[in-house]
Model the fold of this input.
Amino acid sequence: MRVRLAGICNTDVEILRGYHGFRGTPGHEFVGEVADVRGVSAVAKKKWLGRRVCGDINVSCSAYGFKPVCDFCRRGLRTHCARRTVLGIVNHYGAFAEYLALPLENLHVVPKNVTDEQAVFVEPLAAACEILEQVDVRRFREAAVLGDGKLAQLIARVLRTAIPRVVMYGKHKKKLAIARRAEIQTKKVRGDASDRNRIRENFQLVVEATGSPSGLALSQYMTEPRGTLVLKSTFHGAAPVETWPIVVKEITVVGSRCGSFAKAMALLRSGEIDPTSLITRIFVLSHTPTALRFAQERGALKVLLKPEGRNEN
Done:
């Protein structure tokens, strides 16, 4: 695929810090155009050439054609395939390049009414949608999202499609303002230990998406007894945490990662979610090091990379 647009994710930044020990080209959020297809009939090749696509980042042993497939693939858990590679994260060169390769079964055609700037959000939006598959959100009248970054913003929007009241807790005034424009309630926090003394509200459903080790302790504190805590943050290094609140309050803790591209694409196609307000800046591909530094600056949300020949915004 010829990459049309790629997004910088917090995981890409963590990879630079040593997460997963990855070596190669990072990047896993992309929209591209099929430039070549191998190993298929002429009819199938013609069907795919020129199509705009996004791609599932987990490449399973079944996608590689391995036989027999592993137990996880046999059980339908391809995102946990024992022999998987992960685009731009585990043993698979990623999207911060002019071209990338994926098996056809990983590809999802982008609808005509979905722009490149929307489609580049499909992967993180799918990760947000995974919460709807893991938790019966119909049980909850309200939910809290800890964090105001890119993934937290998408999670809050997805939860808002199913839960009447969603409250985002974050440190950045401008980011919280963006969430309010999407009809999400917001509350400003300091992002340190003092928040535990200042926050009085508890929730049956809490999603931790701060991208910081400190968020885990606060999320346990804010989860009601017998409540559900969904963990979304991935970062390099260990997080100091006490487990007794989980036991004493009998909290259900859910780890959550990748999700359904079809569900994410449907939300974009219907217009129910438009993530383009989260785009802070677009760089050309040759300026990737600068873009990665900019993505770590205070106040930055989604930073995108475009191929050469297209102006920076």
